[in-house]
Design brief:
four-stranded antiparallel sheet, Rossmann fold, globular, binds adenosine-5'-triphosphate
Length: 242
């Protein structure tokens, strides 16, 4: 059975249909990269899975159980954690306080302040610093650490590299590799950098105008095929739309 199953999901912003009939499954330890142009619906999809945005239709199930209208904090307790676009840390609180607050609401498990600092070593000297004073990369590491503190089984990552320097992106992804290496965390990540998405993911899904228009194993998909789906260039191939 898949750990996470999304079936015919739709979500709106007012009259705008941001997610339309999206279906996919993710097994334990799978890394699914969601790619697609700005406005394709990736953020709305992640937020809907996390319970931060209300679904307009369809079903999200976790270990076979329908999540229905379950609130976001209850989903965190089940093991679904979102690292939101823009990070949304408590800027006036320290790194340590941000991590502790998250840990108090989550599940128990391997991730504690110590193990988060092992994975994200750059945070070690920063524990007492206010998040608002940190660089983008340091904030992103804190945001991922905060999600890990809830001991998620499904980690939803929304554009972790957005606005970061190339060095900071590499540092964040190196740390993520240590999370992935544990093998039991399912990750759904939105990533604009296609090469990076293809390197890290086991599967890739491309969204266009609210729908998944191409999905497959990362090893089976070429950059060209994904780029065509990204821009909606071809008709009638593998479920793609024009
Ligand atoms: P990006 O890469 O720019 O974040 P995305 O693929 O994540 O894009 P969404 O942010 O989910 O896409 O946006 C999907 C659609 O919903 C877009 O047309 C966007 O303009 C619209 N939208 C997103 N957030 C809101 C909002 N709060 N109110 C109204 N419309 C919104």
């Amino acid at each position: 059975m898949s750990l996470l199953a999304v079936e015919n999901l739709s979500a709106r912003h007012g009259l705008l249909q941001a997610v339309s009939g999206v279906s996919f499954t993710a097994a334990e330890g799978e890394i699914l990269a969601l790619v697609g142009a700005n406005g394709a619906g990736k953020t709305t999809l992640l937020r809907t899975i996390a319970g931060s945005h209300r679904a307009a239709g369809g079903r999200i199930s976790f270990e076979g159980a329908d999540l229905g209208t379950m609130r976001a904090h209850r989903r965190v307790q089940l093991g679904i954690a979102l690292v939101p676009e823009g990070r949304r840390l408590f800027g006036a609180m320290t790194v340590e306080e941000n991590l502790k607050v998250a840990g108090a609401n989550g599940r128990r498990g391997r991730w504690t302040i110590e193990t988060v600092l092992d994975a994200f070593a750059l945070l070690k000297p920063l524990l007492r610093r206010r998040c608002g004073e940190l660089s983008g990369g340091q904030q992103q590491a804190t945001a991922i650490g905060r999600a890990l503190m809830t001991n998620p089984r499904v980690l939803l990552l929304d554009e972790v590299s957005l606005g970061l320097s190339p060095v900071a992106v590499r540092t964040v992804y190196d740390s993520l590799q240590t999370v992935i290496a544990q093998g039991d965390t399912t990750i759904v990540l939105v990533e604009q950098d296609l090469s990076r998405a293809l390197r890290i993911a086991t599967r890739v899904a491309c969204m266009l105008e609210g729908r998944i228009v191409l999905e497959g194993k990362a090893a089976d998909l070429t950059r060209e095929r994904i780029t065509e789906a990204y821009f909606g260039l071809r008709r009638g191939e593998g479920g793609m739309r024009a």
